[in-house]
Design goal:
88 residues; 4 helices; 2 domains
């Protein structure tokens, strides 16, 4: 079974599908798999995970704009709610 997975990983590496190869190699407990994984990480480093602490950019707006617009939208929703309940 590990041999078959190593062959699968090798095919992925040949096709330059490094993330798929990396996922397979991580599941194999064998010195050769660890060696291949280390070499693969040198050739094509894994993508860095996105941190929830990184500054979000939404449609070209930075976090400062969102901090400004959220309270404004909240106030508008409260006013709309009061108007609708007053009509009823």
């Amino acid at each position: 079974m590990p041999r078959e997975r190593m062959l699968q990983a090798r095919e992925h590496i040949k096709a330059k599908r490094y993330d798929e190869a990396r996922a397979i190699l991580k599941t194999i407990d064998h010195p050769t798999a660890r060696k291949w994984l280390a070499k693969l990480n040198e050739i094509a480093p894994p993508p860095e995970p996105k941190s929830f602490l990184s500054k979000p950019v939404i449609y070209g707006l930075d976090c400062g704009c969102l901090l400004f617009f959220c309270p404004v939208i909240l106030v508008l929703l409260v006013i709309l709610f009061k108007v609708v309940t007053a009509i009823m």
